[in-house]
Protein 1
Amino acid sequence: MDHTRDNPLKRFTAFWVALLLVTAFGIACIILRPMTHAKVDSAMEAAADDRRAVRAEVDNAQRKNLNQSALDEAFKAKAVSLLKSEPKPGKVAVPKPAAEPEPASE
Amino acid sequence: MAETTSNAESNDVALRASIDRSLRHPVMFFFTSGAVWLALAIVLGLVASAKKHSPEFLSCFSWLDAGKVDGAHMSALIYGWGAQAAFGIIIWLMARLSRKECTNAGTILTVGHLWNLFVFIGLICILSGNGSGIAYMEFPGFIWPLLIVCYLAITIWSLVQFQVRDAGHVYVSQWYLLAGLLWFPWIAVTAFLFVFVFDGHPVMATAIASWFKGSLFLLFFLPTALASAYYLAPKVTGRPVYSYNLALFGFWALAFLGPWAGMQKLVGAPIPQFLPYMGAAAMVLILIPAISVGLNILKTVHGHGDIVAESPSLRFTSSGIVLFVAYGVLSFVLHTVPAMKMTQFSYSGYGLDILGFYGVFSLCAFGAIYFIVPRITRREWLSRRFISWHYFLSLYGVASIVICAVVGGVTQGQGIEDVAQPFATMAERASQYGWGVTIAWAFLLFANLFFCLHLLLMWARLGRRSSHPTLLKGHHTENPHGPEGEIDNIGSASA
């Protein structure tokens, strides 16, 4: 063993240098990230904010005006009446299928 | 004088034997577990390929949906087989070339188990529908930092060995090993941060994932394969490398071009247009390192056709290098502007990926494994027929996959471009080539069953107890494998 090149101190140093070297890319990315990524409001993002605001307004209005208990009652009443009613022929006329054409004679 | 030389030789043999002994367990663990993952990856590849032309195949299992099984197939192939084969080659080759024993085998072996566990969890996540859906990065986000830490814990000792090596010449293989060891964390950490951690624009995350996909082969797997080829070709033939200048040129050409490749798949995407075309240009120019490395290795073994035919290591390695030249030519053709337009959304990219990953990397890795395993187990391979079957079925399988995928991809692309034809016509044309790919995966499955079984027997130390290597065309005067048991009387296997 060449003790000038291979000794515990040299191995210890080599380990930490190697660790620093292979993690340097990640460290560099994390450090450089804030410098290269300023907050940008693009036209698309601004338009998306407007759309989200309209959507939220519509959802709130619907929630506020919806009477869930009345709706449940109405469904229940309708269901009971549907169950009691007997099936009757409908009023809409069903068109009869057209007669098949005669096979062409030779 | 003669006595001094003899002493130096015996010291050298003892040193090599001690290095092999120090690395026996981690290297054999990486190779055998990699071989098992390879068999699994091929089964998944077979299912994924079958689903391309017969979507109803195994449709009763939701965890085998086309998207899931395709991602699982590539992930098992790359991180299960490829990475572990590369780890085994890197740690053994760097220790041998730096002439330093490994003092951290226990750590490497433990972390190797963890690597397998994380790959397994990642694969379960993909098949259960919790994968990321990003090509070559299908494992969910939490797996990546764990894999990167495992990578560091496995490979950092090779960097330390290189640093404390005895003063002197740095061999070509060490350039490639060192470069691959440093390039992988660069691309993996960068891709992980920009794809999974930073809240960047999704289109740029896609571009970075695409860059990772292209660079992973060129900057990690390819350097490992070339390091092995530059080691084995001179070692087995007993000749020096044909040209050091050519080796230097090939190395720097790869180092210069490799990082630019990857984004060519995003032509037409809303990213700066120079990026995909820069990627395409890099892939076209990959032909330069392919020719320089191919010329150098093949010139080194030139005139030793009998050794190439006899030695399993050299036969696999030479075939891998020939396929690297084919990879360069195919990459050149497929990345010209008219070809890219026609093949962008077709199978042909898959054909090129498999040519690189299986044809180049895996064949060189098989060559390395056939060389390394007898040295660390002190046993010789059991059956020349197993090796021959593995070789021919691998070569036939990979050639069939590449031809079917590339020709089928071009036909598919022509169908997509021809607006006068209905879409179903194009799908019908492509499905016939899809059948070819499926059958070719079946050949590879057979090839790797031979390989996996053979390797497991060697791991169990059931190999032949002989110092005569298992050659594919032996002409021994006595027992074709030489006298039994003599391996135990010497330091390590030779030749």
Protein 2
Amino acid sequence: MYGLIQDLLLKYDKVFFVTKLFPQKEWDCFCSEFSKWTNRKAFFLLEEGIACPNNFHSFVISHKEAEECYKLYLTYEFSNRFITLADFKQYGTLFHYIETGILTEEEAIRAMLA
Amino acid sequence: MEAQYYRAMTENLEEIEQAGILENKKIFLFGHCHATEKLADLLLGKGYAVSAILDNNAVKHGNEYRGIVIQAPQEIIREAGEDVIVCIAARAYAAMTEQLRRLGFQGMIRKLVDYNSYADYSLSEETINCMTLRRQGGEILFSGLKKKYPDCFRILCPFAALGDIYIMMSYLPHFLSKRGIDKCVVGVIGNACAQVVRLFGFYPVEVLSQKDMDEMIQAALYEQDADTYIPHQDRPYVVKLSNALYIKPITLEQMYCCGVFGLPADTKPCEPVNFSDSADLDRIRDGKAVIFSPYAKSVTSFPEAVWEQIVACCTDRGYQCFTNVAGEEKPLPGTEAISPRIAEMKSVVERAGTFVGIRSGLCDVIRSVNARKIALYPDYNYSDTKWKAIDIYALAGWENIVRKEDGTWERR
């Protein structure tokens, strides 16, 4: 798993790790906004059960691999280009800005992609 | 810049100097921030020339600090790697190093101060083992905290900044109420932050070192502990709230109220309740004195002449002048030193009648004080965004004044 992440970080500007915890509504919005974000190379590591548009560079990983990947992400920051999409309860997230009217859904996704 | 980090930076610089690493090298710095300016001061003071400060914020390109131009990191690839050293005194050391390597820079890169124990941009077995051990150390500390406060929800504040702690505390009761939490313990770094927490009531407070806090937070994250919350706008690395600033300006107050805690934008912040009177009040002429606060950890200070001018102006008008100092800080010329505890600041400023300070966390601590309050802002951008510091930090009910690059003042 670590080797795969290392290779992806060498080849791509950003690697998005999408867990099954990430709300479906936000994921749909993310996919739609991402399609407008064409100037950088990105790869999607998808936990099994999550689908993405056909034109995304992506790879599906098992629940066990996703767990391993998530634990690694929570052990230290090994890259600022590895972005994990989940549903975080321990700290503030950009979704709080949507809920409170500070950002629209599109703006929050654009912020995530920034 | 905190004294401990400044000391470490000075020692690290001396070490590489004694090892001859700086000899015949073109020196570049990366990341225009307060710490980098301090590093530039040290280097210039030792007689070294600094070729440029690299920075990703295009808004800053072309500006200068003490004659050192700020330019895009891409400029470094024009240089022959073996003749160049890039010195970094910024929190994003790991990301900056990776960026330079991806640009093709082969020269030497040196970290002058270790601000960020969460990051190591490597997936080598050695790094993973090392970071796993760090996290496991955090698990022991975290387990100790849970045992010490068995029935308490845990609030772990990752950064020692008075302003952050003040604003966080002013919204914390609403957050706890929203979550149905009765009791909590607040973990902070350093005694000054603990004093700020205590302004808001009798919360149990655990004072930790930066290292222990980092490791404990890492453990809490790893365990996905549902009874712990990390209330900060951009720390540690998992928190991405500051990305919103690439889209629009958001005030610090909104960051905490809405971003950190998810509270409605019209939530009224709680006021501090535990102020006390300073024993020094008799020294201060009632309503005819000014408390100056010229020092801040993370904000570039004004030239001494600027403060001297302001002090002279107040003295001429018959005001008694004080400088709020801590530790080794010196009072401004023509002023008396005063060092009230945080809980006493309100009494001191209200007695004096006027406060003039660089916009630091201390301004947050006295934001509700009944006096004339003037916050001064250097003309700098907030982090790597296009917004000015005043766009993010302006205080309601205060006179907010920016000192422009050309030395003129602009009221907001």
Protein 3
Amino acid sequence: MSKLKPQKEYEKTRSFRFQRWLGGSRDPYVGQIEMQPQTPMEMPELTIQERLRDSQAVRDKVYDIENNKKLNLFRRIYVLAAIVYCAGLAVILLAMVASLPPTGEANRPVNNEVSARYIENGLQETGAVNIVTGMILDYRAFDTFGESNVLFAATTTVLILLHMKKKKNKEGKVEEIESDRLLEPKQDAILQASATVLVPIIILFGIYVILNGHLSPGGGFSGGAIIGAGLILYLSAFGFEKAKKLFTEKLYKGVSFTALTTYCLAKSYSFFTGANHLESHIPLGTPGAILSSGLILLLNICVGMVVACTMYTFYVMFRKGDF
Amino acid sequence: MTVFQCVLFGFLIVCAVSVSFSKNLLNSVLIYMSFSLIMSIVWVTLQSPDLAITEAAVGAGITSLLFFATLKKIRAIDTRGEQEEKEVFPGLNEKNIGEEVSRRE
């Protein structure tokens, strides 16, 4: 439409044609080019015997293994070369390990001022009794945040690749022929009885490992993996119908988003205050108490929740393709 | 290095070799699982319990479970034996199996 020119004059201008092409109201190729309808390519259907005969002929004439001397020679050399290569690689690696400096020596390149700082001042600066957790969630929290995001990205990829929408057939019922539900074991009594005993213990142990990450060995990642394993055991014992009551797609999205955002905000605060030489005002507490070591407990809980949800989602996607 | 550690390392090597030489995929996954379990004990003896817990949970638990699920998805675990029996003897179920067998004999 043009405000300056009347409609008939405007239709001759280039801008009108450009607008028409842009809007797609007229295909410029219609009527200009001869077009033929596509014919689907036809493949002659071979019977099984014909295909077997063909492959046998190919095997006999092309890859004549018994009479082809070159091929025989090549195969032998190939196997020999593979063995030599593997042995050589093993020898090189063993020689490499043997030439490393012995463990615990004072002048190893690992024993520099960084690890000395971690060991000497770790307890005062982070408040965590477990130095490993203090290291990965305080000094190197940025790396751990990256790892959590990598896990999240991996789950997203798995969701994109394996997520299947439920198909509905004519009667409105959800088709389950292709899904894995029919293949799962039907109400295995032994598995259910052992799962009833084991699942609460496993999940409680996972929560213990997460909450005591700054005091004892363990932490967010291992505790989350333990909780995920417990959830998977529950799922394989009691089936998808019962597991759906506890764990849905909505819960997964909510928990992952909340945990990652909390982690990001908490660490952003401490990075901001640390970079600007401000006081962070987060009490470190007495070392050894469960509410101590500043942000580490919160970060452990966040990482644990992300990992538990990720593990469970992986399994569900591999099994069925839908929550 | 103690004798216990040497035995564990020997087990590790045996597991690693037998994973690649096993024809059955299910056996391979089971051996891989035991590799992870031995590895977690090795981590404990090397004084890194954090790694041991993670190795036991992830390596022996979650990874093997995912492998099992994948094997089931690609039908590498053989579950055809039960179905073939039904195909060979159509109309056979648990109730009339006795008379069917006696009739065939």
